[in-house]
Amino acid sequence: MTTTKTVRELAETYFTAWEAGDFDTLRELLAENVDFVGALGTASGVEEALAGLKGLGQVLEKIDVKVRVAEGDEVITWFDLCTSVAPPTPTANWMHVEDGKIARIRVTFDPRALLAGFERRN
Predict the structure, then answer these.
(1) Which of 5, 37, 49, 103 is deepest in the core (most CB within 10 A)?
(2) From what superkingdom does this record's organism come (predicted)?
(3) How far is it, in rounded angstroms, from Cα 29 to Cα 97?
(4) Residues of the chain scoring pLDDT < 70
């Protein structure tokens, strides 16, 4: 576990920064070799992860956190992903923290409404 921020605090800061479009703060939270796997894609390294967050951030309106559970170096956040292109999407996000940075992220949700919303935008 990190000595500067708890894993719960890291997750809270991550979601607050993403919702605000504060990608400088997000960069500080992510390990250089962060590994991301989600319903809409994968990312290896901080630059790819930030690009993915920025992409979805273009339609992000709100992150409505329902519950956050932390144990050791792991934290799971259950939330509704509220976007301008789809109804709120129930989402689970698991993060693993190493040396005070977010090293692994796994996200799961049903992407069908978001994908349809992206299609309507194009």
Answers:
(1) 49
(2) Bacteria
(3) 10
(4) 1-4
Domain count along the chain:
1
Q: Buried b vs exposed e over 76-85: b needs ≥16 C-beta within 10 Å?
A: ebebbbbbeb
Distance between first and last Cα of the chain: 43
Distance from C-alpha of 14 to C-alpha of 8, rounded to nearest angstrom = 10
- pLDDT value of residue 4: 64
Q: Which residues pair with 64 in a beta bridge?
A: 80
Look at residue 71 and tell me if it is in a domain: yes
CATH value at residue 32? 3.10.450.50
